[in-house]
Amino acid sequence: MRHTTHADFALRVLLYLRVAPGRHGSVAAIAEAHNVSRNHLLKVVQRLASADIVETTRGRGGGVRLVRDPSSISVGEVMRVMEKDFAVVECLGAARFCRVAGVCGARSVFSRALDAYFEVLDGSSLEDIAANDFGLRGALGLVPGTGS
Predict the structure, then answer these.
(1) CATH number of 5-83+125-139
(2) pLDDT in tens, 13-40
(3) Model-level pTM greater than 0.90?
(4) Cα separation of 77 and 29, whole Å?
């Protein structure tokens, strides 16, 4: 299974905010830290804000901040917010045109696999994937005392 760029960027935004001073940052700073498109991040941040995972503030001193404790934000929740389709095979999707749908066991196997996948993601929080504060801060250029 492969996730969209928006799902990947959502995790990057959240990782940044998890280790940023005050758990706050501007979209421009996050885009620069990850070397990604600011325009793409704006869309990602809007979706995260509509899911009450982050909060945005306009103007000087504004930006994006985490609304909840990182331990309460599961990776599975983020993926569900950012992705529209988890039908890894056609028979899991809304439209089914497969001639053997209903008579083969693929739907059951892939459905169980998807359930197991989300069991792992739901059991993993932002706190879990961002546990290496020092390493993440260094990689993102958020070194204490530099004003970043």
Answers:
(1) 1.10.10.10
(2) 999 999 998 888 999 999 999 999 999 9
(3) no
(4) 24
